[in-house]
Each structure stands twice: as C-alpha cells, then as structure tokens.
Amino acid sequence: MKKILIPIIVCALLLSGCWDEKDIVEMQYITAIGIDYDKEKEDYILYAQVVSFAGVAKSEQAATVPSKVWVAKGQGKSMEAAINMIYDKSNQIVYWAHIGIIIFHERLLQHGIDQISDSLARFQQIRETNWMYGTKDSIEDILLVTSLFSSAVQTTLFNPEEAYHVHSIISPIRMHRFYSDFTEKATTTKLPMISVKEDVWRTKGATNDSAKSSGVFLLKEKKYLGGLPISQFRGLRWVTKTTKRSPLRIKLENNDEVNLIITQLDPHLKINELDKDKFDIDINANGGIIEVHKEISLPILKEKIIEKMEKEIRETYENALNIKADIYNLEELVYRKDYDRWKHDYKGRFTLTENSIANINIDITITKTGEYDYQFSY
Question: What count of Cα atoms within 13 Å lies in the side-chain half-sphere of residue 245?
Fold first, then answer.
C-alpha cells in the first residue's frame, strides 16, 4: 500500500505548484503609462496602456487575432490614489511588470515630479530600465497608437535604440539615467519629446497615426526649464558621443544640394586654456555622400560641412540659452574638472553668455562618395 501511496503523494505535490496559475487572458498587462497633472483640481492623472491577449492563438488555431489596445485612466491627489482607481475599475488582475515606457506630460513637468518619482521608485513592479518620454500632446492619443501590424509594443517608442542608430537626433534615456541626471548638481537633463503624427501611413480605406520624436524637454536640478522643437536643437547631435548616424544637407547655388550621412562622431568639450570662463568644442567625424547633383571640389565641400555643423551647434546653444538652459552641460564640465573653482568662484551661480563658446574645431573626413569621383575635383 505504501508503495502505491508514495508515488501518488509525490505527483500531487508536483502538480500543486500550477493550481493557482492564471491564464494570460485572465490578466490585464500594463505595457506603458503616462502621467499628467490637473492644476485646477490639483490631481495627478494616470493613463495605463493595456494590451489584451484574448486573441492569442490556441494550439489548434492557424493564426492570431491582432491584440486590442485599451487605455485605463485613474485620477487622485497622489500617484497611489490614481493607481488604486485603476484597480477599482478593473474586473481582472492588473499586472504592471511589463511596462516598457513612461510618459510625463509637460503640465506635470511644470508642476514638479518629486512625488511621482518617489512613487515610481517604491513601486516594485516598475523596472528602472523603462524608456522615458515627455509630451505636450494627449497622452491617451499617444498610448492608442499602434504599429502597422496592430501592435502597440512594436512601435519605436518601445525600441528607440534601433531608430536612434539609423537616425540620431535625440538620445533615448532610460528611467535610471533620467533620475540620475535629474538629481545631479550642474547637470541638464534632456528628456525626449514625442508627439502624434497623423495619417503617416496609409492603406486602402484607412490611415495609421504614428508617435514620433518631436523635440526635447530640458530640466535641471529638479526644475523644468522648457522645451525645444527638433528644428531648434539640430546642433546637439554633433556634440553627443552616442550619435551613430545623422543626415546633413548642404545647400549650394541654384537650389542644388549635397546630402550626406555623418557617422563616427568623436566630440570633446573642454575649458578654454586662455579664458577659464569659456569653452572649446573639438569634433572628429566621418561623412558619406549619398546624393550630389553638381560638381563641387572636396575642400569646398568639407568647408561647407564644417560651416553648417558649427552654425547648428551655435544656434542650438543660443536657443537653449533663451530658456536659461545649458544644453551642452558646460557647467557640469567645470563641476567635474575643476570642482574647487565651481564651488568657490561661482558659488552655485554659474552663468553662460552668448560668447561662452569660444572655439569650435571640426575635422571631417569624407569616407564614401558613392559613384561621384573626386579624383579631379580638388
């Protein structure tokens, strides 16, 4: 009898571990959240993107049904109250550990994110590797955007590094890096701004919106400074070490132009040796020609590339200076390299002027010319 009971008991113990397992269709998986602030009511508003797995194929089915995307909304005097409202409204178990992106509305940035930051840090299901974004648009509209194949989690918002490696404009930032910069002295945090682009893709009888990078929000020492559209910070890419590949258009006479791809950037920012209150920027980069319609000598082309890059760098600096932002983190350079001078000379009142950038030295190497032959074009 014992010989029969022992195997049965062992099998029962092994099976018991699966008795409380939930099927994926019985749970609500939160894949993204966005947080807004209502100044009149003094309420935090939490939007949660929920992906349904009700259409997941069974073993006997031939294909899956596109998963639906829903957006839940919670509101309250605190982040916890907003989360609890979502719990109260849900008729299934809510699971937060699959969150991939977090979006802050500009209204929240203006109000301050200290309380939100504390709540996010204490929420065990939220990982510190989530991608961070800011927006001026409706968070609900952004969270309802799907890819061409009806997936909300296959958009570039969830995979920004791949898009950045192809077209480097503003470096994506993860949650742990965002808060590290956000609380660091002398450091300006750059939060990618996203917006909804309507009718980007079109098919028969339907169109598809897209959520794309549209600018950058600048914050320093827990304070919101303002935002810049892409057109006003094109020079940032040339002084960012993580830039992989970025296009550059050079206009010539008679509406002709040369289109290039700039790669392998190696920028260095340093304190000017003659005037410690000024800074120099040295950049080495490679350029590849992808389109040219008019013959131009290589020295003249390189001169125009350098001129265009320097112009973009200075214009970006000035645009940021207009909102009192140190977009190139020049103060951080002093803070890291010459802390005693930062502490005693500036006494926490570091200021920049239009002339703070003294020299910009750019060395560009044309590595690819396509079918265009420069053999006799010097």
Answer: 11
Question: Which strand ranges, in their side-by-side order, compose the sheet holding 279-292?
Answer: 245-251, 257-271, 279-292, 357-368
The two three-digit tokens of residue 167, written as one number: 């077209």
My answer on whether 244 and 213 are in the same domain is no
Other beta carbons within 10 angstroms of residue 129's beta carbon come to 10
pTM for the model stands at 0.86
Q: Per residue in 292-349, pLDDT tens?
A: 878 888 899 999 999 999 999 999 999 999 999 999 999 999 999 989 888 887 767 7
Q: Which amino acid is at 247?
A: P
User: What token pair was written down for 223?
Assistant: 């304070």
State the Cα–Cα distance between residues 73 and 34, nearest whole angstrom.
Answer: 10
The β-bridge relationship of strands 27-38 and 93-95 is parallel
The Cα–Cα gap between 107 and 25 comes to: 35
| Domain end among 203, 232, 261 | 232
Where does 50-148 have alpha helices with state H? 79-89, 106-111, 114-122, 139-143
